[in-house]
Amino acid sequence: MAEEGLRPIIVKRIKKGGGGHHGGAWKIAYADFVTAMMAFFLLMWLLGSTTKGDLNGISEYFKTPLKVAMSGGSGSGDSSSLIKGGGKDLTRTDGQVKASDDPQVKKTYNLTAAKAALEAEENQRLQALKARIENKIDANPLLKKYKEQLLLDITSEGLRIQIVDEKNRPMFALAKAELQPYTKDILHEIGFVLNDVPNRITLSGHTDSTPYMSDAGYSNWELSADRANASRRELIVGGMQDAKVLRVVGLASAINLDKADPFNPINRRISIVVMNKRAEDNVLRDGRKVEVGDAEDAAEVGAALGASPAAAAPAGPPVRK
């Protein structure tokens, strides 16, 4: 029994191998492969079950994601976020076109007709202004006395209002830019009425063809310009807005109202033109245009400005006016 208790205890240790030279790395590679295949088949399934509209939306999103996010629908990337064209068929392969690009429904605009309509409307407005001024003259006893000195007509440039001299009733003091009291009254009444229309105006001063030159070189050109500017001030005193005045010029005797008699007192006048849009654009575009009137007058101005003031005025007695 004692010998049996002394029997040696043998411990067997099993040494586990490493599975060969590659170890267990193949398992990781296999797991990655299986994951990739699952993702691939999932992608193929999604592509096969998604409508073409959704596919177009997804494609558009990846092309311009910011544009779709800002302009698209509520579902970023779905068919509601697709930036719509003109058609409803999203399965088209030749691209979408806007409805306005369809040649059969494209709108056309006749700019010439629209411009003519605007000019006709503006002409009616100036005709109405002319009628209001004429009614004001007839209704005002003070103005009615000077009715023969107030000439109103519609030209290609707009409504022209001319205040002319008469032999025994001049508008200004002799050889000065000082307005007579009744001339101020006329300009005050006209200035208030001009606010009824948005059109801008030009003023031009005119003398007759009687030569006039002071020792200081002050001539009909300076006199006509000063008279035009004095008339502008009185129009503003009458209530006209200062911003309505676009230009003030002095034309001396370059354009006579009575072409047959250049010394007629009627040639001494103030011309106020309520311009239409076309005339206003011409003045703003061409600073060399010096008179607003008909084509014949414009041609005469050009011819007159090509010569000196002395050459443009016919001979006559040097009387101040």
Polypeptide structure, described:
With 321 residues, the chain is of the alpha+beta class. The protein has 2 domains: 25-87, no CATH class; 111-312, 2-Layer Sandwich (60s Ribosomal Protein L30, Chain: A). The protein contains 11 helices and 5 strands. It has a 5-stranded mixed beta sheet with strand order 1-2-5-3-4. Strand 1 (150-155) and strand 2 (158-164) form a beta hairpin. The model is unreliable at 289-296 and 298-321 (pLDDT under 50).
What keywords describe this structure?
single chain; 321 residues; alpha+beta; 60s Ribosomal Protein L30, Chain: A; five-stranded mixed beta sheet; 11 helices; 5 strands; disordered C terminus
- The Rg value, from CA coordinates, equals 46 Å
Helix content: 40-55%
Strand content: 5-15%
- Straight-line N-to-C gap: 168 Å
Low-confidence stretches: 289-296, 298-321
Q: Number of folding domains?
A: 2
Structural category is alpha+beta
What's the helix count? 11
What is the residue-mean pLDDT, rounded to a whole number? Answer: 76
**Helix-strand pattern, N to C?**
HHHHHHEEHEHEEHHH
CATH-assigned homologous superfamily of the largest domain: OmpA-like domain
The spatial strand order of the largest sheet comes to: 1-2-5-3-4
Q: What is the CATH class designation of the largest domain?
A: Alpha Beta
Query: What would the principal axes of the Cα set say about the shape?
Result: rod-shaped
Number of strands: 5
Output the CATH topology of the largest domain.
60s Ribosomal Protein L30, Chain: A
Most strands sheet? 5 strands, mixed
User: Which second-level CATH architecture of the largest domain applies?
Assistant: 2-Layer Sandwich
